[in-house]
Amino acid sequence: MNLFNVYPLFNINPVKAQGSFLWDDKGEKYLDFYGGHAVISIGHNHPYYQNKLKDQLDKISFYSNSVQNELQTELAEKLGKISGYEDYNLFLCNSGAEANENALKLASFHNGKTKVLYFSGSFHGRTSAAVSVTDNPKIVAPVNFSERFIKSEWNNIGQLEETFKIHGNEISSVIIEGIQGVGGIMIPTAEFLSKIKELCEKFNTVLILDEVQSGYGRSGYFFAHQEFGIQPDIITIAKGMGNGFPVGGVLIHPKFEASNGLLGTTFGGNHLACAAAIAVLDVMEDENLIENAQQMGHYIEQEIKDFPHIKLIRRKGLMIGIELDRDCSEVRKSLLFDHHIFTGNSNDKNVLRILPALNIKKEETDLFISALKTVLEKI
Ligand SMILES: Cc1ncc(COP(=O)(O)O)c(C=O)c1O
């Protein structure tokens, strides 16, 4: 059997990883400034994380959501405390798309409405409703398309008000990323977010903040929206939550009523997933990683801002979009093959997406900074 060929692959085969470095099967060392799409939050193979998972493997790795699982309670308590959402409830699942899928369903169960408002440049995942609110027609299959999903322009308050004027009474939820990642590190304005919040309250519409990529400390806040002082009804998480172990979650305001069977999943919140997620939160707290994200992000920006060919830097914490005056693919390839540094791209072909681990060290950022300078001075 062959693999279903949907991914453009670099011809690199990593076999070992530690901290912010990877090694391939030929022993070549690479610096990871992308974390495999923003997943590696506390560094590869962090010893505390490894031990937590090994200990858990020795005890029990899985049983379904038909029995007590104290690890879920421990995770919910820790997450509530560190995020400031102690009064919210947690539903555990396996990925970002699944978290958003459940959030959209829950909103609709709650208010009985059918339409969803999303924004240009959005990416919310590839499952049914999640892909319908993703602004990329190439990945929306005909079976996912429906006029119930309404797109409005990013950061455009006038259009938002107009859309609510026409459809407001039918809009079940608004879904928005804390910071758009795949869209090219697009940051919402404070005015835009507070207008969304105001309209959601007025029209009994559920506000869903997708913090799958921008959450878990990456922006220098636990959740990116916390900088703006708004409070969503539902928050979705995944990626950095498990540092590579597949786990996702939905944080749900107490006004939403749970009932048996309303939501569910076979694997969500299993023992190993909870052990991984607890380990991530412990390390984030012990090592002050949110503060490190703020400091290292600021340092990188200061060091690179005057490099040639950089038009603009959009950044919060360690979520960094470097907009070049040209397509970034050659720069990315040179960073990878000439300097052994992984970086990311985005739907904007000029934007290099930088998402290092939150415990990146200054000397590691210096490797990236000096390689970027060399590459940009050469083109
Ligand atoms: C903001 C956002 N939401 C949702 C998703 C989907 O997450 P997953 O790939 O875990 O389903 C992604 C993935 O890139 C994302 O960036």
Automatic annotation (TrEMBL):
InterPro entries: Aminotrans_3, Aminotrans_3_PPA_site, Class-III_PLP-dep_AT, PyrdxlP-dep_Trfase, PyrdxlP-dep_Trfase_major, PyrdxlP-dep_Trfase_small. Its cofactor is pyridoxal 5'-phosphate. CDD domains: OAT_like. Pfam families: Aminotran_3. It comes from the Bacteria. Belongs to the class-III pyridoxal-phosphate-dependent aminotransferase family. Coiled coil: none annotated. Keywords: Aminotransferase, Pyridoxal phosphate, Transferase. It comes from Chryseobacterium kwangjuense. This is Acetylornithine aminotransferase. GO terms for molecular function: identical protein binding; pyridoxal phosphate binding; transaminase activity.
